[in-house]
Each structure stands twice: as C-alpha cells, then as structure tokens.
Amino acid sequence: EDFFAWMRGNFDPSVSWSDLEYIRSRWRGPLIIKGILDAEDARQAVRLGADGIIVSNHGGRQLDGVPSTASTLPSIAAAVGEQITVLADGGVRSGLDIARMLALGARGVLLGRSWAYALAGAGEQGVAHMLELMRAELKIAMSLTGITRVADFSADALAR
Questions:
Q1: Are 35 and 67 contacting, i.e. CB atoms less than 8 angstroms apart?
Q2: What is the pLDDT of residues 87-110, one digit of tens each?
Q3: Considering 39, 58, 107, 111, which one is annotated as catalytic?
Q4: Least crowded by CB within 10 Å, which of 21, 94, 123, 141?
C-alpha cells in the first residue's frame, strides 16, 4: 500500500471541533487533546471541556516545517496553563530537554522515541536505564539552576 492510501485510511480531514464537543457530551472521564500548536486552539480546547492538552507536532512527521513544540509552548502555556493541564512532547531526548519544556510552561513532559529505542536496544532493562539517565540529567539541571522542586521550573531557569 502506498503512502497516500495509508493517509486516506488513517486520517479524516473532516474532523472538527464539533467532534470534540460531541465526545465531551458523552464522555465524562478525563479528556486530553494532543497536537495543539496554537494558543487559540488551546483556548478552544478549554471552552469545549478538555482537561488537558499536549503541545505536540507529533515529532514533525505530519508536515515538514511545522513549528517545534518548544517554540509554541510558551504562548500556549500563558494562554491556558492556569485553566488546564499543559503537557508537551517532541524533541525530548535528555533530562535537560525535560527541564527546558518545564521551564517553557509544561506541567509534564512525555517521552516517545527515547523509551522505544531503549526498549528495542535492551528491553525492559534498557528502558529502566534510559529513565535513570534522564532522571540524573534532570537533577543536574535542577542543581545548576538552583531549583529544588520540579514544579518550580519557570522561564527564569532558561539562559536568555
């Protein structure tokens, strides 16, 4: 099967905010929307009852030239970060990357490729090792910036 056939079979271009409104009307559990790259979309997710959003460009694999998560995260966090949980993913390869995303406004950071590569390379032990490395790198970043609690990361932790 070619790429375009796969795209037609896996992506529905007719999906809209009204679909989220329908889902929210029937689902009372936590609702998190992934793929937000714009402050107005984040506001719309809040208006429609999302509990959280994931600022994500899906690793840039959806469309070349899409803005990075890190470049859009600050404006999105400023727009809705007090109203819903803002998570981030994309380009996170180290504990320092986690620190950066937290400093840019994320309340939590998701990992994709890192654990998948670790799993492929060394199974469960590889994932445990990767997580330990990230934890150690995050602790170093916290020490070097004088931060004692992950919740205390802010833009002040970033070098300008």
A1: no
A2: 999 889 999 999 999 999 999 999
A3: 58
A4: 123
